[in-house]
Amino acid sequence: MLLSPPDNRPRRKQLQIGSLSLDSQIVQAALSGYSDLPMRVMARRFGASYTLCEVMLDQFLTRVGNSQRNLARLAIADEEHPVGGQLMGANPDDFAPASRRLVEAGFDCIDINFGCPVKKVLGRCRGGYLLSTPDTALEIVSRVREAVPAKLPVTLKMRRGIDDSQDSEDKFFTIFDGAFSRGVSAITVHGRSVVQRYNGPSDWDFLATVKRHAGNRIVLGSGDLFSAQACLRMLAHTGVDGVTIARGAIGNPWIFKHTQDLLNGSPEENIQPPRIFSQRDVLAEHFRLAVKLNGEQLAGRTMRKFAIKYAKLHPDSLDVRNAFIAAKNSHEWQGVLSKYYCKDGPGKDPSNEIDETIEE
Fold first, then answer.
1. Residue 285: how many other CB atoms lie within 10 Å
2. What pLDDT is recorded for position 2?
3. Structural domains in the chain (count)
4. Strands 56-57 and 26-28, how do they pair?
């Protein structure tokens, strides 16, 4: 699907989330196991106006130790502000101390996850499960808002309900309206239900209904944003105030620049996959940031999942993917770059190769 003619397409605008003034409406979503400091920094450098840390359990935050690995999850770079910390849990009593821990760590916003569809999360009454229990969900919102300083915004991540039933939709709007009345500054809505997980398309018509219902309250949209063109189509189709890019940003920070370029009026034909030398430079910097945060041994392991996604941009994606999987240290990582990224050339569009196993 082509975008609307240039004079009708959405344009870049400032987004206000409570006290946070963002220079555009393009946000990097929280991604479990992915949106750590290095990924967030790369997203910010490429144009994300705001990023969210990977979701953290309330119980983890109240018991976090001083190991390098634990502290790395709370690490924030000076250059990435504003940045949000996302909370998930089941017991309202645990949310206040966990929220205060995120504030102490330096996060500029506290986001509450009522959207995760993972089976083990639902089985522990967390994430998307809370969409079935409005009273508990809203009690959690109240506890967080009371615990967080008034100058820091509290936000919410939801799916469009547990399932397609009218009861599920009614509970969605009970939580949606109740959260705003309790002081939430913005709500992100994913267009799939919890039971749907990632099967089938995200329901952008529902997002449009939600935004019409919300009026001037801030609503961000999520789901099926794997290209800059898709981000603009969501903005145009739904009227949401901003979009949160999740799986589409893993191994592809260029999606933020491309989206910003389109919002600034750049012709669609100018949006091309990054060239090989650009990929090489970003891969090297992402790895450097990971080593700085985690140490070389752990960085070598954690970067494999990112490298698999970066490889989709390379013309020889399968060979590059396998080479990165085999790399165990900086020397071997540099060897992959030297072998496969030594000659410049056009990249490949990764948006047609979507991984359904990654949880937002």
1. 14
2. 47
3. 2
4. unpaired
The Cα 223–Cα 51 span in angstroms is: 16
**116/150 Cα distance (integer angstroms):** 27
Can you tell me whether residue 67 is helix, strand or coil? coil
Using DSSP, state whether 115 is helix, strand or coil.
coil
The secondary structure of 164-179 as a DSSP string is SSHHHHHHHHHHHHHH
Please check whether residue 344 is in contact with residue 287, taking contact to mean a CB–CB distance below 8 angstroms: no
Q: Are residues 176 and 322 located together in one domain of the fold?
A: no
Q: Which domain holds residue 299?
A: 276-340
In terms of domains, do 51 and 163 share one?
yes
Closest CA to 220 of 84, 51, 27, 66: 27
The tokens for 252 are 């592809």
- What's the rounded mean pLDDT across residues 30-40? 94
pLDDT tops 90 at residue 310: yes
Q: Which two tokens stand for residue 328?
A: 């165990």
Quote the CA–CA distance of 282 and 329 in Å, as a whole number.
17
116 in catalytic set: yes
Dist. CA 211–CA 202, nearest whole Å: 15
Domain-embedded: residue 226: yes
* Beta partners for residue 52, in sequence order: 84
1 lies in some domain: no
Alpha-carbon distance 202 to 197, whole Å?
10
Which residue of the set 53, 109, 116, 231 is catalytic?
116
Which CATH number goes with the domain that contains 319?
Answer: 1.10.1200
- Determine the Cα–Cα distance for residues 291 and 297; give it in Å rounded to an integer: 8
Run of H or E residues at 285: helix 276-294
Spatial separation of the C-alpha atoms in residues 88 and 126, rounded to whole Å: 6
**Are residues 175 and 307 both part of a single domain?**
no
Give pTM, 2 decimals: 0.93
> Which domain CATH number covers 209?
3.20.20.70
**What CA–CA distance (Å, rounded) separates 197 from 105?**
31
State which amino acid sits at residue 328: K
